[in-house]
Amino acid sequence: MQPTEGELVILQVLWSDGPSTVRAVNERLNAESEREIGYTTTLKLMQLMLSKGLVSRDDSTRTHVYAAELPREKAQQNLLQRFVDSTFGGSAGSLVLRALGEGQTSPEELAAIKQLIKQLENEASND
């Protein structure tokens, strides 16, 4: 299940802060947003996310605590694949070339990319 943009924002809060109440998520969203987000809007969205299986809810106390069920890595993988498919015709190489061609890559990031390329080359030669 792919999260919507609004759901993804809530998941970001839950991934960074861990299990949280609706109030805590709503306060965090409002602290980071230019416009006010109502508590009931956050509650409704989190209830929809619960029905989709994106979050779980602990009902053992009066204040319900929600936790992310969709791992961050899985969401990133799905969103990236969708983006690569729709924007770069499925070519991860085109995405990488475009990103690196923008000239905003730090020396540390370039070193990590080179290391990953070496690793991928070694894996390919071992197949």
Automatic annotation (TrEMBL):
A Pfam family matched in the record: Penicillinase_R
InterPro entries: BlaI_family (IPR005650), WH-like_DNA-bd_sf (IPR036388), WH_DNA-bd_sf (IPR036390)
Keywords: DNA-binding, Transcription, Transcription regulation
Protein name (Swiss-Prot/TrEMBL): BlaI/MecI/CopY family transcriptional regulator
GO molecular function, one term: DNA binding
Any one GO BP annotation for this protein: negative regulation of DNA-templated transcription
Native organism: Neolewinella lacunae
Residues spanning the signal sequence: none
Similarity-based family: Belongs to the BlaI transcriptional regulatory family.
Gene3D superfamilies: Penicillinase repressor domain (1.10.4040.10), Winged helix-like DNA-binding domain superfamily/Winged helix DNA-binding domain (1.10.10.10)
